[in-house]
Write a structure and sequence with these properties.
This protein is an alpha+beta fold and about 350 residues long. Helices cover about 60% and strands about 10% of the residues. It is built from eight helices and six strands, in the order ααααααααββββββ. It has a six-stranded antiparallel β-sheet with strand order 1-6-2-3-4-5.
Length: about 350
């Protein structure tokens, strides 16, 4: 006889556990299917290079702000020295007039003109025409000289105060640029940290090897230097091939782009300004076809500078993470050349 007993029901707690486990497995599988793939070394390098390029542009602005700060600091110092000297001269002039008043007092009274000058409002004295006949020619000249010195001193103090305000603004801008650079470098480091130490080391090695190969096989043609100075500067720059880019560096073992140009041309007795934009104003502008060896090459809207090496090649310090090397000008955004005088 067939059995009519009800089949055994599964334990509810066990069903709940199995259901939850299955749901979790499905969720994990779905997440794995939709998870962003880990970026490749090539992708990371591309993004890091872009950040480094932005850093290099910010570095040129930082260098400009730093140069302006140094210039203003010097001007403020000169003005403060001038004010101090002017105040000392004014004190001597007043002392001389005071000595005259003392002598007159001892001989029977102070000249009315001197009394007026030593009063609380001496500047109004010479405006009082009715008293001019009481002033000797010598005393009148002394009073006018003192008044002129007072006006000059007031103007110099005002100039010093204005320069101090400009200096404070330059320092604030300098701090902002430095913060921007540090932020971009930090972003680049975060990207690099997604790679293994071995991958990062390989990237650096590849960059160095590529720069070395470029230096060894690059054909500079048979061009001639733009001048004797350009020849000396170019020869100096060539000795820095393979040196690392470091923001704000001016050599001899690391450089930013304008720092390399400064260092090279200093060997030729030429003092270039600190930034690529300023270096773009030191001589006549040239088209691509007019370039000769040693000419400066201004690129990327004035934010980057290199040196023409001949045969369409530029010798430059590109950006953080790279080294001083030759690079085809066709791979860059050319603005204009500059012939250094």
């Amino acid at each position: 006889m067939a059995s009519h007993r009800r089949p055994k029901q599964p334990n509810r707690a066990r069903v709940s556990v199995l259901t939850a486990t299955a749901a979790a497995a499905v969720a994990l599988t779905s997440q794995a299917a939709h998870a962003d793939p880990k970026p490749s070394v090539k992708d990371v390098k591309s993004k890091v290079d872009d950040l480094y390029k932005q850093t290099e542009q910010a570095t040129e602005k930082y260098d400009g702000a730093k140069s302006q700060e140094a210039k203003l600091q010097k001007e403020v110092g000169n003005l403060q020295d001038k004010v101090a000297r002017g105040q000392a001269d004014l004190n001597k002039m007043r002392d001389a007039l005071g000595a005259m008043a003392t002598a007159q007092y001892r001989t029977g009274g102070i000249d009315p003109s001197v009394q007026l000058f030593l009063s609380s409002n001496p500047d109004s004295y010479l405006d009082k025409a009715s008293t001019l006949d009481q002033v000797s020619a010598k005393q009148a000249d002394q009073l006018r000289e003192i008044q002129a010195k007072q006006r000059e001193l007031a103007q110099e103090r005002k100039q010093a105060q204005d320069k101090m305000k400009s200096l404070a603004a330059a320092r604030k801008e300098l701090g902002g640029k430095k913060k921007e650079i540090q932020g971009k470098l930090a972003d680049a480091n975060k990207l690099l940290n997604t790679l293994t130490a071995q991958q990062r080391a390989q990237m650096q090695q590849d960059e160095q090897q590529a720069a070395n190969r470029s230096s060894q096989r690059v054909s500079l043609g048979k061009g001639v230097p733009a001048s004797k100075r350009a020849a000396v500067a170019f020869a100096a720059a060539q000795t820095r091939l393979g040196k690392p880019y470091v923001y704000g560096a001016t050599g001899p073992n690391s450089f930013d782009c304008s720092g390399l140009m400064m260092w090279a041309y200093a060997h030729a007795g030429v003092s270039l300004p600190r930034t690529s934009q300023a270096q773009g104003t030191v001589g006549p502008h040239l088209g691509r076809s007019q370039l000769e060896i040693g000419d400066l090459v201004i690129m990327d809207g004035g934010s980057h500078v290199g040196m023409y090496a001949g045969n369409g090649q530029v010798l430059h310090a590109p950006h953080t993470g790279t080294v001083v090397k030759y690079e085809a000008m066709s791979d860059m955004i050319f603005d204009y050349g500059v012939r250094v005088g």
